[in-house]
Amino acid sequence: MTHLRTRAVHAGQHPDAASGAIATPITQTTAFGYGTLERGAAIFAGEAPGYRYSRFGNPTVAALESKMANLEGAQAAVAFASGTAATSSVLLGLLSPGDEIVFLGPLYGGTEGLFRQMGERFGIRVVDATQLGLATCLTPATRMVWVETLTNPSLRVHDLTEVAALAKAHGVLTVADNTFCTPWLVRPLEHGIDLVMHSMTKYLGGHGDATGGIVAGSAALIAPVRKTGLGHVGGNLSPQEAFLFLRGIKTLPLRMAAHCEGAAAVAHFLAQHPAVQVVHYPGLASHPQHALAQRLLQGGFGGMVAFELVRNERAAAAAVLNRLQLFTQAVSLGDVDSLACHPASTTHSVVSAAVRAYNGITEGLIRLSVGIEHPDDLIADLGQALTQVV
Ligand SMILES: Cc1ncc(COP(=O)(O)O)c(C=O)c1O
Predict the structure, then answer these.
(1) pLDDT tens profile 312-323
(2) What residue spans of the chain are helical by DSSP H?
(3) How confident is the model at residue 354 (pLDDT cuts 50, 70, 90)?
(4) I want to staple 181 with a disulfide (CB 3.0 to 4.6 A). Which of 37, 103, 185, 269 is the partner?
(5) Gap between the Cα atoms of 366 and 319, Å rounded
(6) Which residue in 194, 174, 158 sits closest to 296, CA to CA?
């Protein structure tokens, strides 16, 4: 199974030994009978394989973890009830008071909010290296560097190889949030990044009907994240949701191809529209990191597009958004349905105005999650909405 498209279908999954069922059964149980006291003791001591309690592990969830470890080229993975549970479990599992976490932004607003609030309460210094650069911001106390493979919502690209090499030279762990790209476009561990995390809620699930997160990396790094995140926080993914992710990932490559095709068409349309000041899409030659994106991303430039109106104000954004018919106004992304949102008043309302300003999150910025509908229909919808502000 060398091709990712084949692995997306088969990795981690086998016909059920008891029934022959091809779809991995939903093992809906809290506890697992272990038969004898001796076997129970051995499982609890980690000396024998076997499940004991679904908070610590469950066969449906394990199939998903195994599939995602395979797709990201990792030794191990651990699934959580949301991307945010995955992020907080990485922080709680691997950082201690006095440590520093450095990030290259802009980050998803919820992630930055989590860093800052958790940092303040638990004595972890949070450093935003977006403006100063990573090299300037690493100190002897830096323990972790956090990046998003494509940033939200301005679709900036980070040179993962450079980030990983610099951090490694300082003995610092790196984590990449690969939610926007998925392993179909980039596999951060291949670039030297230590841990990759996802909000599976987005492209991996793909249908807007399940919330989940996952972290993948070496067995040595996943072990403390699993212990803290499942054992202590109890952020485990339910087997029902795991089933939906297993099903969704089977079509990830096909969906990503359609998302990328649609987003490229939409970006080109917006780039020539008189009501649009600037389009953020790494597939456009005008994107400041187009060359890096071409090197880093394989098979397309993702399904997210952001654009700023010439009339750079909230009222203009509202006029466009409120007229859209095919794009639903909502904050999630990666669904088969197209979605649109106003980051300044939604996803990034929790970060400070100064952070919004230097990350280009203006009042006239609109973010699109381009679904798998026909691009011509999406372009027609945007065209009629933009007539409001020409
Ligand atoms: C890039 C990114 N990371 C993490 C998250 C958090 O994921 P979840 O909503 O599954 O907790 C989001 C949510 O929008 C996101 O966009």
Answers:
(1) 999 999 999 999
(2) 4-10, 37-44, 59-72, 83-94, 109-122, 134-137, 160-169, 182-185, 219-226, 239-250, 252-271, 290-296, 314-321, 353-358, 375-386
(3) confident
(4) 185
(5) 11
(6) 158
| pLDDT over 90, % of the chain | 92
Q: What is the pLDDT of residue 356?
A: 85
In terms of Cβ atoms closer than 10 Å to its own Cβ (0-12, 13-18, 19+), residue 170 is middle
Cα(384) to centroid(ligand 1), Å: 30
Q: What is the pLDDT of residues 99-121, one digit of tens each?
A: 999 999 888 888 999 999 999 99
Please provide the average confidence, as pLDDT, over all residues in the chain. 96
CATH fold of the domain at 4-250: Aspartate Aminotransferase; domain 2 (3.40.640)
Give the pairing of strands 195-199 and 173-177: parallel
Pairing of strands 304-309, 276-280: antiparallel
Q: How far is the CA of 218 from the centre of ligand 1 (A)?
A: 22
Residue 346 CB-density burial (10 A; 0-12 exposed, 13-18 middle, 19+ buried):
middle
Q: What is the pTM of this model?
A: 0.96
pLDDT of 352 > 90? The answer is: no
Nearest ligand 1 atom to the CA of 152 is: 1
Sketch the domain layout of the chain as residue ranges.
Answer: 4-250, 252-389
Tell me the pairing of strands 125-128 and 339-341: unpaired
Q: What 3-state class would DSSP assign to 20? A: coil
Rg for the chain, CA atoms, rounded:
21
Q: In which band, very low, low, confident or very high, does the pLDDT at 350 lie, cut at 50, 70 and 90?
A: confident
Residues having CB closer than 6 A to ligand 1 are 82-84, 108, 110-111, 148, 152, 177, 179-180, 199, 201, 211, 213
Q: Rounded to an integer, what distance in angstroms lies between the CA atom of residue 316 and that of residue 32? A: 57
Strands 142-148, 100-103: pairing kind: parallel
Which string of b and e fits 71-92 if b means at least 16 CB within 10 Å?
bbebebbbbbbbbbbbbbbbbb
Q: What are phi and psi of 10, to 5 degrees?
A: -105, -30
Cα–Cα distance measured from residue 77 to residue 222, given in angstroms and rounded to the nearest whole number = 6
CATH number of the 252-389 domain: 3.90.1150.10
pLDDT per residue over 376-390, tens digit each?
A: 999 999 999 999 888
